[in-house]
Amino acid sequence: MAEVTEALRRGVRVVEAWALALAESECARIEELPASGNPGTPALARGTQADHIRGGARLALAVADTPEARLGPLGVDRDLLLAAALCHDVGKPYEVSPRNQA
Questions:
Q1: Which of 40, 45, 79, 84 gives the lowest tally of CB atoms within 10 Å of its CB?
Q2: What is the pLDDT of residues 24-65, one digit of tens each?
Q3: CA nearest 91: which of 31, 10, 30?
Q4: Are the C-beta atoms of 31 and 48 separated by less than 8 Å?
Q5: Do 36 and 44 touch, CB atoms closer than 8 A?
Q6: Which candidate, 101, 52, 57, places its Cα nearest to that of 79?
Q7: 66 vs 70: CA distance, rounded Å
Q8: Quick one: average pLDDT of 18-23?
């Protein structure tokens, strides 16, 4: 099994961003966040906020892959695209926190 080194951890900013965001709320996990667009709006019919984030990441990759499949490589930085997709709701923990809303 490969070892996860500190050098590898330093290169993964998505985890760091979400850890900081969760630290600014009462939630310890992304799954604990309300799965809704805004505070006080109806929740998703099914799934969690984590499911929403994963779905956004899959969609972003598909949007990049579709034209590349037809036109060839377009120079999309897939690491950056995936990181951005995974962080698209990183402000939600702060936004939905009762402490921060007060």
A1: 45
A2: 999 999 999 999 888 888 988 899 999 999 999 999 999 999
A3: 30
A4: yes
A5: yes
A6: 57
A7: 7
A8: 93
Distances (CA, A) of 27 to 44, 52, 77, 79, 91: 18, 17, 31, 27, 13
42-46, long-range: CB within 8 Å, 24+ apart, which pairs? none
Q: What is the DSSP string of the chain?
A: -----HHHHHT-HHHHHHHHHHHTSS-SSGGGS--BSSTTSPBPSSS-HHHHHHHHHHHHHHHHHHHHHHH------HHHHHHHHHTTTTTHHHHH-HHHH-
